[in-house]
Design a protein that fits this description.
By secondary structure, the chain is of the alpha/beta class. The protein has nine helices and eleven strands.
Amino acid sequence: MTAGTCELCGAAGASVCLEEVADYVTGVTFDIRRCHQCGLAWTDPAPSSMESFYPSFYRKYKSRALWALRRLYTLRVRGWARRLPRGRRALDVGCGDGWMLSAMRDRGWRVFGSEISISNARSAAEENQVAVFVGELDALHSSAQFDFIILFQVLEHVSEPFTVLRRCADLLSSGGAIVVAVPNFSSWQARLFGKSWLHLDVPRHQHHFSPNNLRYAMEKAGLQVVRTRFASLEHDPYGWVQSILNRIGFKQNLLMKFLMGSQEKDRSITTVAVMLGLSVVLAVPSLLLSICSWGVGDGATVEVWCVKP
């Protein structure tokens, strides 16, 4: 894909919608381009290597934050499981710590996960006793079939998202289901905060989806969209809090880095205390804003449920 060509629809017309968006880890800046035809946006330029943009503390939250996240992820899996038959095969693409796979296994499913790094795969396999392979989906045998595939906060990270969706559609059994969740680039948060939005996360987020072009991508891959939802207790209220802190002048994503245990040289105790105090004050308004945005289809994340006809 060239800088002005859309990966999803192939259109050549794209323009910069956000300029000089800074990576909160390295300080390197990127532009966000958006397709004139389908609205898919992408980070430009795409780094030749992503290694330096994934620090050791990335997503390594402190124990209390991990405890809360795991329980929220488990609740989400319970909601999915109510829509599925029991005891079949599930694949989690980019499974992270393997929490969702563990929750699916506890509900009688045979589970498999994929990761791109050996360390992440080893961590998921050891901590949650789930089968994880390292590599792209092409590593799976052509005859492999799954009844449920999870792409949870993963599709935005890949360089060729439509290629991944088509491969997932091939791996899905007839009548099987796939769930895809990504940040919502047309959400209230995205429109209000722009470059300060937490979930923009350049350049790790290489593509930026709206509900319409995500549904279009699923249908183009041969899948039938049956449900779209926006509620996310894991990402939405937190997104409001962190984005507000970014906008009013705190160092970019400082709260998130604090929760992940990153050691900031210029972070004073006073700054942390003020930030945490403001976060507590903002918690209830952020939850209320999140609920309102869910009701009108403008939540910070969008989750699309599809089946293979």
